[in-house]
Design a protein that fits this description.
0% strand; Cytochrome_c_oxidase_bac_sub4; mainly alpha; membrane; disordered N terminus
C-alpha cells in the first residue's frame, strides 16, 4: 500500500492553516492601510508593496513548498528559471518595441514637415 506523498515533505495541514492565516492577516493589513487612513498618504504605496511581497513569500513557502531545504531546492530552481525566462522575454520585447517606436517615428520632424517630404 502506497503512502500519501502529499504531506511527506515536512508540510502538514497545520502549516497550510498557518499559511492561510498569515495570508489573510497580510491582506487585511494591506486593505486597512488603504481604507482606514492610519498611514500618511505617501506611505500607503510602500506599505502595500511590502505587505504584498511578504504575502508572496508566505504563499511560495506554505503552499508551493518552495524553500532552501534539500527537498525543496528543485522546485525553487524551477521557479527561479521561470522568473528569469519571463523577465528576459518581457524585457527584450519592451526593448524592441521601444526601439521600434523611437526609430520609426522621428520626433524631431513635425507632421507638416513629414507631409512635405513625401
Amino acid at each position: 500500500m502506497e503512502k500519501n506523498t502529499a504531506h511527506n515533505d515536512g508540510h502538514s495541514m497545520s502549516n497550510s492553516v498557518i499559511g492561510f492565516a498569515l495570508s489573510l492577516i497580510l491582506t487585511i493589513l494591506a486593505f486597512g492601510a488603504v481604507m482606514w487612513g492610519v498611514l500618511p498618504h505617501d506611505m500607503i504605496m510602500p506599505v502595500v508593496v511590502i505587505l504584498g511581497v511578504l504575502q508572496l513569500i508566505a504563499q511560495l513557502y506554505f503552499f508551493l513548498h518552495l524553500g532552501l531545504a534539500p527537498e525543496h531546492r528543485e522546485n525553487t530552481v524551477y521557479l527561479i528559471l521561470t522568473v528569469m525566462l519571463i523577465v528576459v522575454i518581457v524585457g527584450l520585447s519592451l526593448w524592441v518595441m521601444h526601439n521600434a517606436n523611437v526609430n520609426m517615428m522621428p520626433m524631431h520632424m513635425s507632421t507638416s514637415d513629414a507631409m512635405l517630404h513625401q
